[in-house]
Amino acid sequence: MKVDETIFKAYDIRGIYPDSINEDVAYKIGQGFAKFTNPVGEVMIGMDVRLHSEAIKNAVIKGLTDAGINVVDVGLMSTDMLYFGVGNYKFEGGLQSTASHNPPEWHGLKMVEKGPAPITYEHGITQVRDFVISGETLSSDKIGTVRKIDIWDDYCKHILSWIDVAKIKPMKVVLNPNFGLGGKIFEKIVETGGLPIEIIKLNFEPDGNFPKGRPDPFIPENRIEFAELVKTSGADLGITWDADSDRVFFCADGGLFVEPYFLNTVLIKQMLVKNPGEKIVYDPRYTWALLDAIKENGGTPVISRVGHSYIKEILRDQNALFGAESSGHTYYRDYWHSDCGMIPPMQVLEYLSETGSKLSEVVAPVLGKYFISGEINSDVEDKEGKMNEIAEKYKDADVSRLDGVAVEYSDYRFCVRPSNTESLLRLTLEAKSKELMEVKRDEVLAIIRS
């Protein structure tokens, strides 16, 4: 069997079905997972709503059980349910059949060890890759068992445990799960907790065809109809997820889309009010608003490289309370050091209920203080050489090489870093005025693309 090695990415496995990932490859991945993790108990597996996710899932199950591994099949779930399931029930590891926010022809797998501890390119994915390429097969005298369970009830109760349900006031909320499971999961949480939330649905019913294109709210054009519905419906809030529901984004009343960078200041405050003096993890893409929120609320900032494996490692090593990325991922020590797409909406609902504020009012001060470029991607052949060139040009600034190159002056700062998953350089820049942001954005972009 010829294997496309490019499907083995930095954090997961992704490829086009059936050309580069299919049932045969998935079977071998299941076997490779068994060899790498060598589980002594049950392994959990679930799937997203993609058209061939069930076929991929079933092939992985066959690979695991042929190797003698006992499997728990939980059916449809979000990716953050993978972390919940493995952590809550103490399984020996887990897999999710998903390709996250990629277009419908993409399929793949996310994997964790017991804990749950992330499986990354350096730790696990290359070993699984090498097994798949080798053509080796695992067999066992005793075929593993498969049992099915439903984890949705326990998951919803856990999410509700993060807030004081009695404090939640009536609100009208637009939900846009981009045809993934996020809306159904949120609806189930609302029903379980008896929350007084009126739900307005957009792109709500799960559909693995993703009929409106790539199911990713991080793409600005995917926000337009969502923000418009929040505005025209008079909703108090809008919540949107990517297709596997582990990244979450918000729209304030009046149709104002709130970048995760700014929304994270609300979550940081909410976390530190309940847990004073704790450490908060952030990354170098945008920093000023986060540092303000951390320091103003008595926390200690800890910087990390971009990427879930690095942030989870810092959370564990530093015993940090919370981590926030500008990509929409939010991480919690007490959620098994993992990211979750449903805790942030609960926290925002609680914050708005407690303060009686509108989200637009809450974020207005920080929106008027820092101005951001958004993430701008460029194809660059010699990425390391270009980052060295930038570091040299701006050597009079405070320069960090923790992750790519980060340059900081008193009135603007930026980060240029290579993508962990694509052959791109990514620019993010913030400044203390809109005009300066635009000037410096264009200046740095011209250097990157020269």
From TrEMBL:
Q: Which cofactor does it need?
A: Mg(2+)
Report domain Alpha-D-phosphohexomutase C-terminal positions.
Answer: 375-444
Report the transmembrane regions from the record.
none
Keywords linked to the UniProt accession: Isomerase, Magnesium, Metal-binding, Phosphoprotein
One function term, GO molecular function aspect: intramolecular phosphotransferase activity
The UniProt entry, under Pfam families, shows:
PGM_PMM_I, PGM_PMM_II, PGM_PMM_III, PGM_PMM_IV
Task: Please list the residue ranges annotated as the Alpha-D-phosphohexomutase alpha/beta/alpha domain.
Answer: 7-123, 153-252, 265-366
Q: Which GO terms describe its biological process?
A: carbohydrate metabolic process
- Family from the record: Belongs to the phosphohexose mutase family.
What is the official name of this protein in its record?
Answer: Phosphomannomutase
Q: Which organism is it from?
A: Candidatus Woesebacteria bacterium RIFOXYB1_FULL_41_13
